[in-house]
Design brief:
Elements (H helix, E strand, L loop, with lengths): L1 H41 L3 E2 L9 E3 L2 E4 L6 H7 L4 E4 L10 H7 L3 E4 L10 H12 L6 E4 L4 H13 L5 H11 L4 H13 L2
Parallel strand pairs: 3-6, 4-5, 4-6
Antiparallel strand pairs: 1-2, 2-3
Helix pairs in contact: 5-6, 5-7
């Protein structure tokens, strides 16, 4: 009888040890997953260069910037960008950007934003569609200083990038968002399209 009780006790201890080990391992895996997510959140936007283009930031397959010079588009092509999205109004440009970009074999979209009032749902929807389409990537999204870019990036990251509105706003400001009216337009769009 004593041998049988000892076997039961040893068997129970082995099972208990296995269960504790399994729980600890699963908790460790969960912590590791959370840590990876936290690391990814802190390593999102990085400073980059494209010739002499001002205020260039890179995130994955996206370059976010101020206005490239005509010569900078050679560099844009060299880094593998397939699509250029210009948020400036045609009268703001000193050269035919569409022609330069097209001659280099890249796709071109000019969705000009002259004022916050021009930031309509239709514009945000079109921007999100272009940015989300993997066939368009890598993408260069630019305006004059990256202020307008930041507003578009805020909406895109909050609705398509999986970020909270606060995290998306922080990225947008890093990119160049400074205009409170554009920030308000982007936030309003995000709130209505969650």
């Amino acid at each position: 009888m004593k041998k049988l009780d000892l076997r039961r006790i040893l068997g129970s201890l082995v099972i208990l040890g296995f269960l504790l080990s399994s729980c600890t391992q699963k908790a460790g895996q969960k912590t590791e997953r959370l840590q990876k997510t936290d690391d990814q959140a802190t390593a999102r936007i990085e400073t980059s260069t494209l010739g002499i283009t001002p205020n260039v930031h890179k995130y994955s397959a996206f370059y976010l910037a101020g206005q490239p010079s005509k010569a900078d588009f050679e560099e844009v092509k060299k880094v593998g960008i397939k699509t250029v999205i210009n948020l400036r109004m045609p009268e703001e440009l000193s050269f035919d950007e569409k022609q330069v970009v097209s001659d280099l074999g890249m796709s071109y979209h000019n969705l000009g934003i002259g004022s916050p009032d021009m930031m309509t749902d239709q514009l945000f929807n079109e921007m999100r569609e272009i940015l989300s389409n993997a066939e368009n990537q890598p993408v260069l999204l630019h305006c004059g200083s990256a202020n307008r870019v930041g507003a578009i990036w805020l909406a895109f990251q909050a609705l398509d990038g999986g970020l909270s509105i606060e995290a998306a706003l922080a990225e947008a400001k890093t990119v160049g968002l400074r205009n409170p009216a554009m920030e308000a337009k982007a936030k309003d769009y995000v709130e209505r399209n969650k």
